[in-house]
Design goal:
Blueprint: H1 2-15, E1 29-34, H2 39-58, E2 63-68, H3 76-83, E3 89-91, H4 99-109, E4 113-115, E5 138-142, E6 144-145, H5 156-160, E7 164-165, H6 168-180, E8 185-189, H7 206-214, E9 221-225, H8 234-242, E10 249-251, H9 259-265, H10 271-284, E11 289-296, H11 303-316, E12 320-325, H12 343-366, E13 372-380, E14 387-392, E15 397-401, E16 410-418, E17 422-427
Parallel strand pairs: 1-2, 2-3, 3-4, 5-8, 8-9, 10-11, 11-12, 15-17
Antiparallel strand pairs: 6-7, 13-14, 13-16, 14-15, 16-17
Helix pairs in contact: 7-8, 11-12
The structure holds S-adenosylmethionine and iron/sulfur cluster.
S-adenosylmethionine binds near residues 156, 191, 253, 255 and 326.
C-alpha cells in the first residue's frame, strides 16, 4: 500500500518536471513514504529522518517531505513539527492528491507546511491522479481504502480511515489503460479486498469485480492482496477457480492458531474455520499456493496457544509467510491488555516459527523440481549476468538464463532447483 502511495506521489513530482535521482545529496526534493503498522518500521523512519538533517545542513535548499501513515498516527505530525525542524512538508494518507499543490507552496513561499486530514472527516476518493509506476510488466491497482475490522492489535483503521471502495467502472477503466500500455499482471490492493463493494450504490462484490476484470483483453494475470478469512465466501472460491486470469495464489493471513488469541485479536474466525476454508480452497483451486501473515507474542499468548500456531503452519504447509513479533501500537485495544509477553519469549517463538516455515517453504519449492511452469518474465536478474527474473502464477520467483527480449512475455520454464525463496530453471521456448 505504501509503495503504491509512493507511485502516486512520484507521479505528481514527475508532472512538476522533477526527475528521479538515487543520490540523496543531489536531490532538490526528498520524499519519505512511511508505514507505522509495526514499531520496528516506525523506528527506522525516525532514525532516517534524523540522518536527513545532515543533508539539509549541507544543502539548505533541499525540500524534505514526509508522507504515508506515520504522520496520520496521533501525535506523530506534531512530533515531526517540533523535533525535526529540517522537515519542510508533512502530509497524511487522505490528502496525497494535494501533494504537488502543497509542495509548490513550500517552494514558493519558503515555509514549512503540515496538512493532515482527520480520519473522521469524510475523505473523498480521488480518481485520475498521475502514477509513476515502479515496474513495467506488473502494476498495483487500489480497489478499496481503509479498514473497518479493528483487529485489536492493528493501527490501520486509525491511520487509513474507514473502508471505502472505488467504483467498479473506475477500476475497470484503470485496468484497461494499464492493458493498453502493455501491463500484463495486475495486483488489486486493499486491506481487506474481499469485503470490496460495501457502501457502493450498486450491488457489486469482489467476485463480481474479478469477473469484470477477467474480461479485459491484454491482461494475463490478476492477483489480489490481502484477503480476510471471515469474508472469503464460497462464491469467491468458485469465482477464483473459474476465472482463467485470476492466479492460483491466495494470501490469507491467519495471525494466530489459538481460538483464545484469535478472539482477543477480534479476528472473527476460529482455528477450525480457518483450516476448513483452506481445505475448501485447496480442493477447488488446482495447484493453488497459499501464503499468510502470522504474529507471535500477542498479549497473554501462552506456550500452548503458540503450539496451535505451529500446528496450523504444519497442517496448511504454506508456500511462504510474513512472520512478525507483536508490537504495541498506542491507541489500539491490545496496547492496554495486561500480561504483555516478555521480549525473550517473543524472540524464542519467532525463531521457532521462522525455522519451521523456512523448512516447509524449502521442501515445497524442491517438490517442484522437474515440473514445467508458465512464467511472466519481469526483468533482468539483479547481480546475475545473463539471467532473467520471472514469476509463476502461484507468485514464486523463477530465475533462468535467457534473452532480454523475453522481458514482458509469458514463457515456459522447467524447474531444475528449488530454494527457500525462489526457483531456478531452464526456458523451454
Ligand atoms: N489487512 C490484512 C489482514 O488483516 O490480513 C493485513 C494488513 S497489516 C497492515 C499487515 C500485517 O501486519 C498483519 O497481517 C499483521 O500480521 C501485521 N501487524 C499488524 N499490526 C501489528 C502489530 N501491532 N504488531 C505486529 N504485527 C502487526
Ligand atoms: Fe489491520 Fe485487521 Fe484491518 Fe488487517 S483486517 S488492516 S489486520 S484491522
Amino acid at each position: 500500500m505504501a509503495e503504491h502511495d509512493a507511485e502516486i506521489l512520484a507521479g505528481q513530482l514527475e508532472n512538476m518536471s522533477y526527475k528521479e535521482t538515487l543520490e540523496k545529496d543531489k536531490a532538490d526534493v526528498i520524499l519519505v513514504v512511511t508505514c507505522c503498522v509495526r514499531q520496528s518500521a516506525e523506528n527506522k523512519i525516525w532514525s532516517m529522518l534524523g540522518t536527513l538533517r545532515k543533508i539539509k545542513e549541507k544543502n539548505p535548499s533541499t525540500i524534505i517531505c514526509v508522507s504515508g501513515c506515520l504522520p496520520q498516527r496521533k501525535g506523530a505530525a506534531e512530533h515531526i513539527k517540533n523535533r525535526f525542524l529540517h522537515i519542510d512538508l508533512v502530509i497524511g494518507t487522505h490528502n496525497i492528491h494535494r501533494f504537488s499543490e502543497l509542495l509548490r507552496e513550500v517552494e514558493e513561499k519558503k515555509i514549512r507546511l503540515i496538512e493532515i486530514f482527520e480520519n473522521d472527516v469524510e475523505t473523498a476518493l480521488h480518481e485520475g491522479l498521475p502514477v509513476k509506476r515502479a515496474h513495467d510488466v506488473r502494476a498495483w491497482v487500489t480497489i478499496m481504502y481503509g479498514c473497518d475490522n479493528f483487529c485489536s492489535y492493528c493501527i490501520v483503521p486509525y491511520v487509513r480511515g474507514r473502508e471505502r471502495s472505488r467504483e467498479p467502472e473506475e477500476i475497470v477503466k484503470e485496468v484497461k489503460e494499464l492493458a493498453a500500455k502493455g501491463y500484463k499482471d495486475i495486483t488489486l490492493l486493499g486491506q481487506n479486498v474481499n469485503s470490496y463493494g460495501k457502501g457502493l450504490s450498486k450491488r457489486v462484490d469482489f467476485s463480481d469485480l474479478l469477473e469484470m476484470l477477467n474480461e479485459i483483453q491484454g491482461i494475463k494475470r490478476i492477483r489480489f492482496i490481502s484477503s480476510h478469512p471471515r469474508d472469503f465466501t464460497d462464491k469467491l472460491v468458485k469465482t477464483i477457480a473459474s476465472c482463467d486470469k485470476v492466479c492460483e495464489h491466495i494470501h490469507l493471513p491467519f495471525q494466530a492458531g489459538s481460538d483464545v488469541v484469535l478472539k482477543k485479536m477480534n479476528r472473527g474466525y476460529t482455528k477450525d474455520e480457518y483450516l476448513e476454508l483452506i481445505d475448501k480452497i485447496k480442493k477447488a483451486i488446482k495447484g493453488v499456493s497459499i501464503t499468510t501473515d502470522i504474529m507471535v507474542g500477542f498479549p497473554q499468548e501462552t506456550e500452548e496457544d503458540f503450539e496451535h500456531t505451529l500446528d496450523v503452519v504444519r497442517r496448511v504447509r504454506f508456500d511462504a509467510a510474513f512472520m512478525f513479533v507483536y508490537n504495541t501500537r498506542i491507541g489500539t485495544p491490545a496496547a492496554k491488555m495486561r500480561d504483555q509477553v516478555p521480549e525473550n519469549i517473543k524472540r524464542d517463538r519467532i525463531q521457532r516459527l521462522i525455522s519451521l516455515q523456512n523448512e516447509i517453504s524449502l521442501l515445497k519449492n524442491r517438490e517442484l523440481k522437474g515440473k514445467t511452469v508458465e512464467v511472466l518474465v519481469e526483468s533482468e536478474a539483479k547481480e546475475r549476468e545473463g539471467w532473467l527474473c520471472s514469476r509463476t502464477r502461484t507468485n514464486k520467483l523463477v530465475f533462468f538464463k535467457g534473452e532480454k527480449s523475453l522481458i514482458g512475455e509469458l514463457s515456459h520454464v522447467r524447474i531444475e532447483k528449488g530454494y527457500m525463496t525462489h526457483l531456478e530453471g531452464v526456458v523451454l521456448e
